[in-house]
Write a structure and sequence with these properties.
The protein is of the alpha+beta class. It has seven helices and 23 strands. InterPro entries: Phage_tail_spike_N, Tail_dom.
Length: 509
């Protein structure tokens, strides 16, 4: 599925191909993220054609997805780690970085820039980078593509120093204005985009019992504040010789009923008392400090929820429309854990040897303490509801099985009774017997449906109950109607038997 090629001075050498058993890397894993250089790590043995021709920082490498026709990784190979096992097997392990890492190879130049747009400032930094690496043997240049990040005035005031280009972009733009970097290629040109957000919202589900192999949901309460102490400007000491490094500050005690703190009562009921402070040096009035503190507590009191997911990429076999890509949002559905929302993939791991082991990392969510408690209670109720529904379904299926068994016994008895009328014509018996045989076949089909239903609602597949309960209810109604029809046919047969008896008693057919 994945082909790995190294490039030295324009000469390509394939070191891994899915169709040739003797052309393999021993291990191969791609790690993708946002605003970081993607990495590719692999291990090769001495019999691999690339074992002795890789030049650190000079040899380029790419990983091509032969299924999608797209490159999963393009970059350069860094330094190797050589090893020999206790059995005498030699190997080399390499780590590679994507083309975004080229921005670490250049340094900016000092400059002062004001009344300049974000795009223009970004173009200046990329131009500095291109000039710095212009004479390199490897093409490390970029062309500025899309820039959608801006600020309220669409102009900025910045200084440039001599730090690396990547660190400068992170410090002067990303850390202050947000945004995300993306490297792409069109018609052989390497573009770098600076976007508000990469990716899009997709409809391909990550769903329990479909493509979700495993999921870990971890709540991190480190960001939770149930009691906040707002602090304003520093208050100078009345003593001229005071050297206390911890100066007094303005508090809200005078405008908050003698209390210097405010509380989130809902969060406190869930997590107890967790006190933290926050200072605003420019606030000099207690009432303003109280209002600012209340707003801060409302906006920043969050429970960090982390997800780690292993999911099958069914697009590779044509069962899903979209593959899972970093930056995109996907519906994640797990009713047992109370998860049903669009979540963003912020990191992805690709195992080129075992693609089924690909992992996704979902971006952190920050629900409030009350939302967190609500979601936990809701998930618990849903699990209880699922168990109750499963129990009711099993009861209905048990009753249906008993009815089917009783009906089958009645048909067998009727067939035996017909066989006792030796004087009845062969044509009548054949006609009635065929009818009974047809109904017995129907019963067997119904018994198979019941078996399938029991399998569907087994405890081991409780995670599928929420999706299958409606289907099971429909099947039960269908089976019940079928039994009713069979009973009507039995009654008709019994009437026909009585008619035959009467004709026999009257001495004729």
């Amino acid at each position: 599925m994945y082909k790995v090629t190294i490039i030295n001075g324009g000469k390509e050498t394939v070191i891994h191909h899915p169709s040739f058993n003797d052309l393999k890397v021993q291990e191969g894993q791609i790690n993708k993220g946002i605003n970081v250089s993607d990495s590719f790590s692999f291990t090769i043995m001495p019999n691999n054609p690339g074992y002795n021709i890789i030049r650190p920082l000079k040899t380029l490498i790419n990983v091509f997805n032969m299924k999608t026709g797209a490159y999963e990784f393009e970059g350069r190979i860094l330094m190797p780690t050589e090893s020999m096992s206790d059995s005498g097997v030699f190997a080399k392990a390499y780590v590679c970085e994507s083309e975004l890492g080229y921005l670490n190879d250049s340094a900016q130049r000092h400059g002062e820039y004001h009344d300049i747009t974000v795009r223009r400032f970004f173009e200046i930094m990329i131009a500095n980078h291109n000039a710095d690496i212009a004479n390199d043997d490897i093409d490390k240049t970029f062309r500025v593509g899309e820039v959608t990040v801006t600020n309220t005035t669409d102009n900025i005031y910045r200084y440039l120093g001599y730090e690396s280009t990547f660190d400068t972009i992170d410090d002067k733009l990303i850390s202050r204005l947000g945004g995300e970097l993306r490297v792409r290629k069109e018609n052989g040109v390497r573009y770098i985009d600076y976007l508000d957000s990469i990716g899009a919202t997709k409809q391909t589900e990550i769903r329990l019992a479909k493509n979700l192999k495993s999921i870990t949901k971890e709540a991190d309460p480190d960001e939770v504040i149930t009691r906040l102490v707002p602090l304003g400007e520093r208050i100078e000491s009345d003593y001229e010789d005071a050297t206390d490094a911890s100066e007094a500050r303005l508090t809200i005690e005078s405008v908050n009923n003698g209390k210097e703190y405010i509380e989130d009562t809902e969060a406190k009921s869930v997590f107890g008392v967790i006190t933290k402070s926050q200072a605003w040096d420019d606030i000099t009035i207690p009432s303003n400090l109280l209002r600012t503190g209340q707003q801060f507590l409302k906006e920043n009191n969050r429970v960090k929820v982390k997800y780690s997911i292993t999911a099958l990429d069914l697009s590779l076999i044509g069962l899903d429309t979209d593959s899972f890509e970093v930056g995109n949002y996907y519906p994640v559905i797990n009713p047992v854990m109370g998860i049903n929302e669009h979540l963003r993939v912020i990191a992805k791991t690709i195992d080129i040897i075992e693609p089924d082991n690909n992992d996704l990392t979902i971006g952190d969510r920050f629900p409030t303490a009350s939302q967190y408690q609500y979601e936990a209670n809701k998930a618990q109720k849903e699990v209880v509801g699922l168990k109750s529904t499963v129990s009711r379904q099993n009861t209905k299926i048990g009753t249906l099985s008993i009815n089917l068994s009783t009906t089958k016994d009645e048909l067998e008895a009727t067939k035996q009774q017909l066989q006792n009328f030796e004087q009845v014509t062969d044509q009548d018996i054949e006609s009635i017997t065929n009818s009974i045989t047809t109904m017995l076949d129907t019963i067997q089909q119904l018994e198979q449906i019941v078996t399938d239903l029991v399998s569907v609602v087994s405890p081991e597949e409780i995670q599928q109950m929420k999706d299958d309960i409606q289907n099971n209810s429909t099947n039960i109604k269908t089976n019940t109607d079928a039994i009713f029809d069979i009973n009507n046919q039995i009654s008709s047969i019994n009437i026909e038997i009585e008619n035959i008896k009467q004709r026999l008693d009257n001495g004729g057919l």
